[in-house]
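TEACHING EXERCISE
Course module: macromolecular assemblies
Task: Read the component lines below, then compare them to the predicted structure of the full complex.
Student: A.B.
Group: 4
Components provided:
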Amino acid sequence: MREVYLDHAATTPLDPRVWEAMVPFFREQFGNPQSLHRYGDGPREAVEHARAQVAELIGAQDKEIFFTASGSEANNFALKGIAFANENVGKHLVISAIEHHSVLNSARTLEKLGYEITVIPVDAHGLVDPAAVAEAVRDDTVLVSIIHGSNEIGTIQPIAEIARRVKERKRRIYVHTDAVMTAGTIPVNVDELGVDLLSLAGSAFYGPKGSGALYIRRGTRIMPYIDGGVQEKGRRGGTENVPAIVGLGLAAELARGEMGQRVAHLTALRDRLIQGLTAVDRVTLTGHPTQRLPGLVSVVVEYVEGEALLLLLNASGIAASSGSTCTSRALKASHVLTAIGVETALAQGSLVFSLGVGNTPEDVDQVLGVFPKIVERLRAMSPLYHKVEVA
Amino acid sequence: MREVYLDHAATTPLDPRVWEAMVPFFREQFGNPQSLHRYGDGPREAVEHARAQVAELIGAQDKEIFFTASGSEANNFALKGIAFANENVGKHLVISAIEHHSVLNSARTLEKLGYEITVIPVDAHGLVDPAAVAEAVRDDTVLVSIIHGSNEIGTIQPIAEIARRVKERKRRIYVHTDAVMTAGTIPVNVDELGVDLLSLAGSAFYGPKGSGALYIRRGTRIMPYIDGGVQEKGRRGGTENVPAIVGLGLAAELARGEMGQRVAHLTALRDRLIQGLTAVDRVTLTGHPTQRLPGLVSVVVEYVEGEALLLLLNASGIAASSGSTCTSRALKASHVLTAIGVETALAQGSLVFSLGVGNTPEDVDQVLGVFPKIVERLRAMSPLYHKVEVA
Amino acid sequence: MPVYTDKVLDHFMNPRNVGSIPDADGIGKVGNPTCGDMMDFYIKVKDNRLEDVKFKTFGCGAAIAVSSMVSEMAMGKTLEEAKAITREQVAQELGGLPDNKMHCSNLGAEALHAAIEDYEQKQAAAQQGGLACQCPFCNEFFKDVPEVCTSCGAKLRFCDECGQPIPHGQEACPTCAEKAQA
Amino acid sequence: MPVYTDKVLDHFMNPRNVGSIPDADGIGKVGNPTCGDMMDFYIKVKDNRLEDVKFKTFGCGAAIAVSSMVSEMAMGKTLEEAKAITREQVAQELGGLPDNKMHCSNLGAEALHAAIEDYEQKQAAAQQGGLACQCPFCNEFFKDVPEVCTSCGAKLRFCDECGQPIPHGQEACPTCAEKAQA
Ligand SMILES: Cc1ncc(COP(=O)(O)O)c(C=O)c1O
Ligand SMILES: Cc1ncc(COP(=O)(O)O)c(C=O)c1O
Ligand code: FES
Ligand code: FES
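Instructor-supplied answer key:
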């Protein structure tokens, strides 16, 4: 059976060129970058080179890049690091209703620790209204954190406009964006976005797992999140994961160089897939129709449940994901789908296909070939479907 | 020039067998363990297998192992996770004066957040007195965290006795040990030690960088430290670094199987090196003479400075480290040396050689061959030395 | 290591006894789509044995596999035996279920039990003298059809076609819908 | 990428002008071993030029390289030129220093300047009529040797051998020690 991977939002395969670059750092170049002796030299140089590569990807200075082990860690670092460091300014943060769990749950943790969180709703396309964010900002607000591109519905937020409006309201307020889905995928520039902090992760753009970074604009008051030694200028302790950092660096460089082609390729496949899927009765696109990630297709299939869809797709060689209750360990429907006003019952039938550079039109056709049958089969089994049919 | 790596406390080379086991997870098996489709199956199985391997190394149950990206993260998780989750019980923690920076600075961060920290002093050999710990415990104490083996002076603490005395004083108090230097090196068993939490790191025993784990005894009340998704049962967010976890698992299994030989090998080399080094005038061992890590040799060389020693050793092909002010970015002498009562001036001449399984008697001889000359050369340059000679 | 055992996947991919029984002797419905799972079980009873069992399920792979498994386990059993089927047995027959999916096997057993209960109540009603109507809210039987259930106070609506009561908040008559579908 | 440039390593491995000058015209001492660094600079002056420069250093690689570099830069220069040497120049000559080692280059320049100042004070003292003794604490000169410094109030101790004052807290006479060592 032909296998089709359409779950790049969960993780991307490692680019073989990135892999090749990492290999030496598992072998001869195993030293600790902090070591003064010769074993530290190569690793240290490699880490600094990677820092420059990542900085260039997002238009930052090298010194503004701090490596982490994941996008989640970067998000925790941003929210809690800023909150803890700026307690004397205030204890209020603003996030959107469609943040990734690492932002959402960081905010909830801060709430337990005595902070106040304002959650900005989104419209039916998942868009945050910049005016609403600006209005939510108070004298004691220290951070506004809005996701850049959603991994569940693909919507891309107007971060530049949000940052502009926020800073207009209150100058010394930090703006963070979770760019895990966008950095390395679409053009991201910290100055154009006007953000002070930005999270990214290597596994989202063909880099290694265990790699991530937080961009911290110069002059930003932040506390380290992983306390420890002198690594990352004392802002993030722990022996540097040199191979992962090297991989992240090269992945960033390759992404920058090939971004134009990649986006064009993904967008074409995405639109073809959206068209085919939504041609099936009672299958609707979620998220914004045009302001969306180039490779992300998210739909809701009525009367059936997402996990069952996934399993049948899997049986047809197709790997995808869902935000249904049954696929979430917490057994709650996706807060993102709820936020865009999808009824909980419908949210059960959510499906996300996320395309990658290796996908082809044949992959899309394979999905479109089996999808209607799979939906039909499950609908035939569903106690909900025929009732409505009859009605 | 023959190269001799004697800085295994900074990081160990990756065991080629571990490396081989990791490779597939960078290539075909790139999936996310959380994925329901086939790409998730192999990685998920591998992660759970590694969990069992790590559990077995320290006599824990699989469910009590939570993967992290470093020893430092595990230490942050333990201290802050326990502190935040048990605020209603109290806000007092007890640590020793010779903790690793990731524990020490986590404690300092907690101090800034309103917690109270008691620091237990050590004796001249770096030993913590269990009675002193028990005495420091109060009604509002929530955690006692004492390092198991010191990476700077090699001293191994009587953790079992400390835990026993503490629990005698106050039953429901959590005991954590930073076992980064001991787990995978000497026998470590969580039940024999009587600890509720234990940190370890793969890069300390021939596993990969970016791998670590926190043991959390069943029933322990702790808050996640990296908030995020459902990974690690909701206790540690972020896409799992599968290759690193796989590597950690195998490194743990190999360590368990080969521990006896390794310890014997290291201890013999260690004692030979200690003897040779301390035969030089005014070179003294730091830490405990017998209750010490099998591979760790730490000395203080009077009248010279550690970084200069390191550079000359490096020029002779020997890689070592130092706790001198000049090698620390913070430009402060090691708090560990200060804690065991080494005068600050003397602490400048600290040297740490940490042996690994790949070292040989020839390596030790190479060090002993050049060491006296290097010391002599720097002493000749030192404005301190001749004065004392004359006096 | 797939999330599901081979047995679960087999029952999911090739579910046994999918469908409904238009002239079912008992119907059991549990769950609702908002929670992500909903199961309808239909049974035919003969000589105190389950002669036929069918189901319709909206839910995850486990929910579907559990439904299939339960239908297979119940088939041919006496009512007493069928009522003794527990979720643990179902999970065991399937070679195990993930921790967070144990509630699905619960649902399966529940839906079966509900169908048997429904059958037994109908029997009891028949024995009570052929009571014509059952309240869809509280399952009470009536000889004459009241406007408002005399037991629970619910307002009853009836299908113009078949005269059966229509549950609150539903447009179509479930009884006719079943038949139309079959 | 080694921490240090090749130039730094060269000066560290092959330091120029290590040693002391027993009959130095000026001595400059900065730092102390508790901070991890200590430098002594010795100079010989002829016709207002540094005829010889020597140093002893306790400190890191950068400290040693900086001492060597400073000694080389100062050699042969007029006193005014030597006084104009800044830590930035030293670092630049060495091809750069790590951020956290800039203070080492500061120390080197400071020690050199201290040696020149010492020379100039001695000259001034000589011009003031051959003052015999200088307080090791405040650098004031005296014609007759007082028990207590008339300027800063420090209690003075003197070497039995050479009669020079011994700094507070030190056992041996630095002057004799220098000679013995040379
Ligand atoms: C005793 C001790 N604890 C913690 C750590 C931190 O480990 P990591 O570098 O993996 O964060 C180290 C590192 O060497 C250590 O020696
Ligand atoms: C938008 C977004 N933020 C954060 C994350 C977390 O990244 P990681 O899994 O590297 O921790 C993800 C993961 O997919 C994501 O999609
Ligand atoms: S039906 Fe939702 S978890 Fe099974
Ligand atoms: S002498 Fe200590 S840093 Fe240079």
